[in-house]
Amino acid sequence: MKKTNQYQHKKILVLGLAKSGVSAASLLHSLGAFVTVNDFKPLDENPEAQGLLEQGIKVICGSHPIELLDEGFELIVKNPGIPYTNPLVAGAIDRGIPVITEVELAYQVSDAPIVGITGTNGKTTTTTLIFNMLQADKEFHPLIAGNIGTVASEVAQKATEDNQMIVELSSFQLMGIQSFKPHIAVITNIYEAHLDYHGTKQEYAKAKANITKNQSEEDYLIVNADQDELIELISFSKAKLIPFSTTTNLANGSSIINGMVSFLGEEIMPKSDITLPGDHNLENILAAVAAAKLLGVSNQAIRKVLTTFKGVKHRTQFVDEISGRRFFNDSKATNILAAQSALNAFNEPVILLAGGLDRGNGFDELIPAMKNVKAMITFGQTASKLEEVAQKAGIEIIKRVDNVEKAVPVAFDLSNPGDVILLSPACASWDQYKTFEVRGDIFIDAVHKLK
């Protein structure tokens, strides 16, 4: 870990705990900062805060008192989920107090070069593929971090010059960077998302583009060349542009040429040997191949991963086959585009399980992808909206249930051998479940109970 004196004796407020806040507070404390932690959850219900208190860190729990801003903080490290409209955050910005997220701290202390991956969809799959490709080549010692697992600032403290940090990054995290600069940045795609946080698609896209704002001519930016809007968005970048495309042969990037996965014109392997299903995953694969090749990973290691990798948990994850029915867990499909991608991956009859948090949007955009859906089972706040869309799509069998667990046996009863039973909610989980992972695990358990 790099030693830095820039936080020594500085008065810093860590706002919001969860994993990122705990890691940030502990790290800053070890770097000599005077840390105060503020979390909304009461102290007696907050083991994380209690643990920090035992380290000698000042803890204020139960509310976010605006009076904290009068204590002379020089910096605020914000939990990514706390919006900038929060009175404490907005007040800090009005007073000129810098507000960052913990990925900025990770960059400042990491001895390892960073590969940063962002985008609306495909981040987790692309991050996992890059990590696996490096791991398959014995010359590399990758560490995976960010939204996909361990907090980046925690991993960075253990990273050495022999490691490579592969970090999945959200728009929320990227809004809070100052000097953060990945050696290789990847933007998988940009679609409308998280408008309840960002307000507009333009602000959301701008946050994603922050991944390249500090890159230099010695760095690389891997982007989806099939999105003209994205290419325009990152036109300011100083990094070397490495495009990938599923539709165009690219001599200067990553693409499919004559049926072969190719990078800079070099053939790596036949597309037909890839085990990961779905056209949407081809984008993720091409982006990952570009990152791996730029780092010097061997073609043999890349081929080993792409001929064995079958997906990330909760992302079009094959769960089981029961009496000729195949079950897939796509709980990570928290928006319409992700659900479209999952539906388009199957040619068999599909029974779709969908529903969740109502963010005020409609679902008509799902209709073109529902051509193989023979039945829909809905749940959650958006159940009635999805039922309307199913009717418009001409789906005759529509059932509403209380939750995901109850949806599974209903789907099985409606299915025939050869059918796909797909959980792809097209919505966030927070109306009924703490996370999409919890929702997906409940689906998996319900499938196993059928046996």
UniProtKB/TrEMBL annotation:
Please list the residues that bind ATP. 119-125
Supply the gene name. murD
For this protein, the Enzyme Commission number is 6.3.2.9
Domain Mur ligase C-terminal residue range list: 314-427
Q: Does the keyword Cell cycle apply?
A: yes
Q: Which family does it belong to?
A: Belongs to the MurCDEF family.
Q: In which pathway does it act?
A: Cell wall biogenesis; peptidoglycan biosynthesis
Q: What name does UniProt use for this protein? A: UDP-N-acetylmuramoylalanine--D-glutamate ligase
Q: Which InterPro entries match?
A: Folylpolyglutamate_synth_CS, Mur-like_cat_sf, Mur_ligase_C, Mur_ligase_C_dom_sf, Mur_ligase_cen, MurD
GO molecular function terms here? ATP binding; tetrahydrofolylpolyglutamate synthase activity; UDP-N-acetylmuramoylalanine-D-glutamate ligase activity
Task of the protein: Cell wall formation. Catalyzes the addition of glutamate to the nucleotide precursor UDP-N-acetylmuramoyl-L-alanine (UMA).
Q: What keywords are annotated for this sequence in UniProt?
A: ATP-binding, Cell cycle, Cell division, Cell shape, Cell wall biogenesis/degradation, Cytoplasm, Ligase, Nucleotide-binding, Peptidoglycan synthesis
Q: Which GO terms describe its cellular component?
A: cytoplasm
Listed under GO biological process in this entry are: cell division; cell wall organization; peptidoglycan biosynthetic process; regulation of cell shape
Enzyme class label: ligase
The reply on keyword Ubl conjugation is no
For the Mur ligase central domain, which residue ranges apply? 117-292
Where can this protein be found?
Cytoplasm
- Which PANTHER family would you find in this protein's record? UDP-N-ACETYLMURAMOYLALANINE--D-GLUTAMATE LIGASE (PTHR43692:SF1)
Source species, please? Heyndrickxia sporothermodurans
